[in-house]
Amino acid sequence: MSGSMKPYKWFSGTSGWIHELLAKLPKDMQTKIRSWALFRPDDINDLYPFPRNRISYPGVERIKGYRYPAPGSRPKVNVPQSESDDKLYDIKYFDHDTRRRPAEVFSWSPDFKRVALPDSPEPAKLMGSPGNKNPAVLAYDPTGLRSAMSATNQELEKALDRAMPNHNVRYAWQAEEEQIVKDCEAKGLPVPPGKRAKFAVPAMATQRRW
After folding, report:
1. For the purposes of burial, counting CB atoms within 10 Å of the CB of 72, is it exposed (0-12), middle (13-18) or buried (19 or more)?
2. Residue 172 has what pLDDT?
3. What pLDDT is stored for residue 1 in this prediction?
4. pLDDT tens for residues 38-89?
5. 133 neighbors 143 (Cβ within 8 angstroms)
6. CA distance 145 to 90
7. Nearest to 147 by CA among 163, 161, 129, 162
8. Bridge partners, residue 40, by sequence
9. CA dihedral sign of residues 80, 86, 89, 90
10. DSSP strand E in the chain: where?
11. CA torsion angle for 140, 141, 147, 149 (degrees, to 10)?
């Protein structure tokens, strides 16, 4: 028997005289009887596994209900505008994936130089399909990169050249480079590549919870 049930529910089927008797008792006496007769006298959900309809909790704003606020009353979604509606369906990534196309390859291991291939006077030939020259694809994309069957390495290289970054990158710790080296040498630590970043982490991220 749960705790939020009214007294008349404790003894269903009676004539109601028990309810009238309990109603005349003082509040503290009613609380003692509830604690003795009920399994969880303070359970607001009557031991149901889910809240009842239109239930309200003390100190909590009333339950808004399903789908609140209504989707029709919400602000409109900010959809980015494009010069061409056709670009909305152009979701490919490989034609501007410059991260996988580094200009130079660096290695922290000196052994890498021993197995590195010598510079070739002729660039390596890119192997791949020559493209099927599908007129249906070339009509809306002359490069042919919108379809895997019509894409070619030559057009891919041209697209990557246009997407390559041309800005001068400077690290945030570059002005403190000498100080970082001095601190590491004074502490007997190896010099790291860069500086340890400080991230904005909420305080609750370091608190233990069970």
Report:
1. exposed
2. 84
3. 47
4. 788 788 777 788 877 777 777 766 666 667 777 888 888 887 777 777 777 7
5. no
6. 10
7. 129
8. 2
9. negative
10. none
11. 110
Q: What is the pLDDT of residues 156-168, one digit of tens each?
A: 999 999 998 888 7
CA distance 11 to 5: 11
Report the alpha-carbon distance of residue 63 to residue 45 in Å, rounded. 14
Phi, psi of 158 (to 5 degrees): -65, -40
Using CA atoms, how far apart are residues 130 and 152, in angstroms rounded to an integer?
Answer: 6
**Is 131 in contact with 151 (CB distance < 8 Å)?**
yes
Q: Tell me, rounded to whole angstroms, the distance of Cα 71 from its chain centroid.
A: 23
Report domain extents, the chain. Answer: 1-51, 86-119+128-163
**Tokens of residue 116, six digits:** 């590195």
* 48 token code pair: 């149901």
Tokens encoding 115? 């197995």
Q: CA 89 to CA 86: how far, in whole Å?
A: 6
- pLDDT band with cut points at 50, 70 and 90 for residue 9: very low
Whether 175 has a pLDDT exceeding 70, the answer reads: yes
User: What is residue 11's predicted lDDT score, i.e. its pLDDT?
Assistant: 46
Tokens 């909790």 found at: 57
Q: Specify the amino acid at residue 70.
A: A
Assess contact for 96 and 160: CB atoms under 8 A.
yes
pLDDT tens sequence across 100-157? 887 666 666 666 555 555 666 676 677 777 889 899 989 988 999 998 899 999 999 9
